[in-house]
Amino acid sequence: MDNMEKQEMIDNIKKKRKRKINWSWIYIGVTVLIMLLFGVFGNQFKDVFKTISNLTPGFLSLAFLTLLAYIILESIIIRFMMKSQGILIGYLDSLKVGIIGLYYSAITPSSTGGQPAQSAYLYRDNFKKIETSKQKDGVTSRLYRDKVPPGKSTAVLLMKFFCFQVAFEICALISFIFIYDTLEVQTGYMIPFIVLGLIINGLSCLFFSSLFYRPFFARLCRAVKWIANKFKFLRNNPNVNISIDRFEKDFGSYTDNFNKKIGSIVLGIVLSFPEFILQMSVIYFVFRAFGYKDMPYFEVFMIQAVLQSAVSFMPMPGASGAQELAFTSLFAPYFTNNDLYFGVMVWRFITYYLIVIGGGILVVADTALYGRKKAKMEPKKANMINEKSEG
Questions:
Q1: Torsions phi, psi for 292 (to 5 deg)
Q2: Which residue among 64, 154, 194, 203 is the one 20 to 30 A from 209 at the CA level?
Q3: What is the maximum alpha-carbon separation in the chain?
């Protein structure tokens, strides 16, 4: 192949990349547009500036701080779960991993992109100093994190997700029992969706726990191989089966000596309760920011918990559309000052769009920074290869 053909091939690849459409962002944009049009044609915008100016800054700040505390606790649990598996990761790195996971979960259907994106980051970024420790003789040693095998990081991240799902399911189920009579009177038509959500989330807990049963996971990997062999371009690639076998082995390392990890799993579940409570508490401070002084915290929390259960299985990025509709249905009786529309927008901005915007900025900045570091490292790698070949 001559240079012209190589250049033509590169140009074709670039064109294909340019034509790639991010449907998740389009869906999110359409959802925002529909909400704005609803506000315009429903005459909701006529008091927009008056409503915003009357929001209590203190409680609005508490809503933002509650979200921040939720993100920080997410990163702390990730670091703890990683450390329990012997994966060293610093506080800033764990915060970055947490935000990346939340961002990709927000823009992918049914929040499926979070763990794969986190696993890819942990495998990619292998040159950062993450921890220092002083030895007995006073000499400071620096520890460096090597590439984390995808199978190993995926196992830890899925266990972290399992811990959160257990806490979520327990809180939502208890909330549903306590708030059932209120729901039946105010929004009885939402009960089947809530029950369906509880069932699906419960089944997801069983499914993710079964992944850590070696025979089941082995059968799952064999099924993936069987499916891969049905496609010619995968069947002819010998690396596919090798990669699946390596992933199975690395993932299975978490299952080895599983009893020794029971303590960290239980603690992961325990820590997930305050994390879930923080996530569900944002709406309370939104109510207070709108001037609702007599809002009962536990009632608002429980309605928010069952709302999350009702929409969490929806196959849209961030459950966009379903979240807004469910919020409108369940919280309409509580926004008595004709400000339900603005309540939805403020709550959704804090709990969703802020994560999408902040996460997007972080991903773009981190990718650019990694590209620059990688470019600087390329000459060093080339020199090492040359030295080895000459030697």
A1: -85, 95
A2: 194
A3: 81
Altogether, the residues listed in the chain come to a count of: 391
Whose tokens are 């939502």? That residue is: 172
Tell me the per-residue pLDDT of 2-37, one tens digit each, with 9 for 90 and over.
444 444 444 554 444 444 445 555 545 655 565 555
Task: Give the count of domains, the chain.
Answer: 1
Give me the sign of the Cα torsion angle 300, 306, 310, 314.
positive
Residue 292 falls within a domain, yes or no?
A: yes
Residue 31 placed within a domain:
no
pLDDT of residue 141: 46
Residue with the two structure tokens 């927000």? 106
Q: What are the helix and strand counts (H, E) for the chain?
A: 16, 2
153 lies in a domain? yes
> What burial class does residue 16 get, using C-beta atoms within 10 Å of its C-beta: 0-12 exposed, 13-18 middle, 19+ buried?
exposed
Quickly count: other Cβ atoms within 10 Å of residue 334's Cβ: 18
Q: What is the pTM of this model?
A: 0.80
pLDDT digits (tens, 9 = 90+) for 219-254: 998 998 888 888 877 777 878 888 888 888 888 887
316 CB burial (10 A radius; 0-12, 13-18, 19+): middle
CA-to-CA distance for 189 and 233, rounded, in angstroms? 48
- Residue 45 covered by a domain: no
360: left (phi over 0), alpha (psi -120 to 50) or beta: alpha
CB-based contacts of 39: which residues, under 8 Å, 6+ apart?
45, 48, 341, 345
Containing domain of residue 283, as a range? Answer: 63-133+141-370
